[in-house]
Amino acid sequence: MAGFADDAKHQDDFFDHYYLQGGTYMHYTDSDDYTGSKIFTSIEGVKSNDWLYGLALFDNSFGQFSQYIYTGTSWNYHGKFEGFHTKLTAGFIHGYRGDYKDKIPLNNLGIGPAIIPGIGYDNGKYGADIIMLGGAGLLFTVGTHL
């Protein structure tokens, strides 16, 4: 029975905390094809070793409901640049359909791979990030640790 109790404790401690964020994005260029609300929200489970696992929900540039499921890590610069971090995530994007399915590389099955970098600042309770969306634009987010 001790093994069962250890397993239950391990499951309770899988994530150190959660990070909830929301934001909006802007494009580098303008296009008549761009529609939608440009609203973004995500939840990340963060481990004590700075690895994270997340799900983002958003309307893509073309007004289509889309999802990004990902894993990644962040690097904190304690001491020299207290509060600043860089982040790199990799995962899969779903939701680019019809005339816009080719806007995501390798989206043959309706799901395309993505690697997304970002930089940000975090004061321990709240954070803000600028996330690079390839050659398309920038995503600006604010969030809170739960």
Helix and strand pattern? HEEEEEEEE
The largest beta-sheet arranges its strands as: 1-2-3-4-5-6-7-8
Round the Cα radius of gyration to an integer and report it: 17 Å
Main sheet properties: 8 strands, antiparallel, barrel
The tally of helices reads: 1
Structural class: mainly beta
On the 0-100 scale, what is the average pLDDT?
89
By DSSP, the count of extended strands is: 8
Beta-strand residue fraction: over 45%
Helix percentage? under 10%
Principal-axes geometry comes out as globular
User: What is the CA-CA span between the terminal residues?
Assistant: 32 Å
Q: Low-confidence runs (pLDDT<50, min 5 residues)?
A: 4-10
Could you characterize the architecture of this molecule?
By secondary structure, this protein is mainly β. Helix content is 8%, strand content 55%. It has one helix spanning 2-12; strands at residues 17-27, 39-46, 51-59, 65-76, 84-94, 111-122, 126-133, 137-145. Strands 1-2-3-4-5-6-7-8 form an eight-stranded antiparallel beta barrel. The longest helix is centred in the first third of the chain and has 11 residues, at 2-12. The chain is globular. The two termini are 32 Å apart. Residues 4-10 have low confidence and may be disordered.
